[in-house]
Amino acid sequence: MNAGRVSRIAPTGWMTAAPTQAVLKALGAGGATVRFVGGCVRDAILGLTPQDIDIATPELPETVIRRLQKAKIKAVPTGIEHGTVTAVAPPASFQITTLRRDVATDGRHAEVAFGTDWAEDAARRDFTINTLYADADGTLHDFTGGRDDLAAGIVRFVGDPAQRVAEDYLRVLRFFRFHARFGKGAPDPASLAACAAATDQLHRLSGERVRDELLKILVLPKAGATLALMAASGVLPALLPGSRFDPEVFAALAALQESLSGETGMEPSVWPRLAMLYPSDGGAAEAVADRLRLSNAQRLRLAALMEAPMADEVLQDDARFLETLYAWGGERTCEAALLLGARKPSLADLSLRRAREALAWQRPAFPLRGADILALGIAPGPTVSALLKEMEAWWVADGFRADREACLARLKERVRIVSGA
Q1: Are 20 and 53 in contact (CB under 8 A)?
Q2: C-beta separation of 86 from 78 below 8 A
Q3: Positive/negative CA dihedral, 285, 287, 291, 297
Q4: Tally of helices (H runs) and strands (E runs) in the chain
Q5: What gap in Å lies between CA 331 and CA 282, rounded to an integer?
Q6: Could you give the C-alpha distances from 359 to 162, 272, 304, 352, in angstroms and in order?
Q7: pLDDT tier, 152 (very low <50, low <70, confident <90, very high otherwise)
Q8: Degrees, nearest 5: CA angle 137-142-148
């Protein structure tokens, strides 16, 4: 068995925390070797806090569950057919997976067999930087040169890139996401070529899997350069037919969003970044939403940006901007303003100012209700609704200045005209 290259890292806080130690003690009760694996080890080397803690063991899932239960740790068989059990030890949870090798793959799913060989388990993983294993004391086991690649900022597939991609075509998107996060300089040529060669297979990926990866890529600090790579390699148009990536517009949008984020602390929104990949042709939003399996709320938010873009005059006219704010709300207006400013550099400064105004805006409450119209003798029916909408439009056009007394006075005047009194 290949022992791999052995080195050391300093154990970090999450590695020595009481819940982690309890899980390791339970899993190792029978003498089995238990190691941290993947992203949590990678992040520990980089001094980052991992989002997930993955653990590998040669023990079978049934044994893992039995050992956890004996230690009074909740065990959830989240992916037992692939050897994965989740240990819940508040406030943390741990994904524990039996060492595996692939038996068969079809580009989306894998049939696996359990094993005891750590090098064999590493060989089936995606990227070298994700194949690092660490013992509880910080002893690092590296079977693929992942630590050197991490230091050099190289994201490369384990073994044959084409084979790794063919095993799961989602790895194409993961390659670009990991390159955006950890890459330094140009991407690994062989890995990039394997991704480009797989574009005709990307339609097989489920919308949910594409959505989750793509939305993560769009908000990364290096999103612009990454999207340019995806467009040049044919990956982006294969994922989103009809999309057209404009690096200058994207860079302008990112700069505006980052400027606003620096002032407000809000993270840049993904939706203007997705919308800018398409022209406002009135039909693309539905296709994109279907492809990415967006929720109804997400679908409406994207359609609002793509199918009803902000007009130049809205930014330039205070009254129209207020009307738009009232109709759209602060968040949508902010996003639409930044998108317009990115597409039209002459409006960039104004769009940023309007975006600030939109985020700070508090929606005023319209002082009238239908009951006020009924109280003046108007019978229930379409006239009530029409009068209420007319009054609200007058109040908005007046800049929301009229209070309830002024609105009632205006309403009485309109009722007299409507009723012919």
Answers
A1: yes
A2: yes
A3: positive
A4: 23, 10
A5: 21
A6: 47, 15, 17, 11
A7: very high
A8: 110
User: What pLDDT does residue 79 have?
Assistant: 85
For the chain, the helix, strand and coil percentages under 3-state DSSP, each to the nearest 5: 60, 15, 30
The pLDDT of residue 5 is above 90: yes
Instruction: List, in order, residues 6 or more apart from 196 with CB less than 8 Å away.
Output: 233, 234, 235
| Rounded distance between C-alpha atoms, residue 56 and residue 34, angstroms | 6
Neighbours of 293 (CB within 10 A): 15
pLDDT at 173 over 90: yes
Residue 248: phi, psi to the nearest 5? Answer: -70, -40
Kindly tell me if the per-residue pLDDT of 122 is higher than 90.
yes
Sole residue written with tokens 């400064």: 349
Task: List Cα–Cα distances, 2 to 22, 90, 277, in angstroms.
Answer: 29, 36, 47
Q: Is residue 96 a contact partner of residue 57, using CB atoms and an 8 Å limit?
A: yes
pLDDT digits (tens, 9 = 90+) for 347-370: 999 999 999 999 999 999 999 999
**Can you give the pLDDT at residue 282?**
59
**Residue pointed to by tokens 């400027």:** 259
Is the CB of residue 166 less than 8 Å from the CB of residue 105? yes
pLDDT for residue 53:
96
- The residue type found at 179 is H
pLDDT of residue 103: 67
Rounded to a whole number of angstroms, the CA Rg of the chain reads: 28
Query: What is the pLDDT at residue 110?
Result: 63
* CB-count burial class (<10 Å; 0-12, 13-18, 19+) for 220: middle
Please, are residues 385 and 379 in contact by the beta-carbon 8 Å criterion? no
| Structure tokens given for 241 | 């037919």
Task: Please state whether the predicted TM-score (pTM) of the whole model is above 0.90.
Answer: no
| Per-residue model confidence (pLDDT) at position 421 | 53
Q: Which of 140, 141, 143 is nearest to 124 (CA)?
A: 143
Q: What is the pLDDT of residue 321?
A: 95
pLDDT at 109: 62
Instruction: Check if the beta carbon of residue 208 is closer than 8 Å to that of residue 176.
Output: no
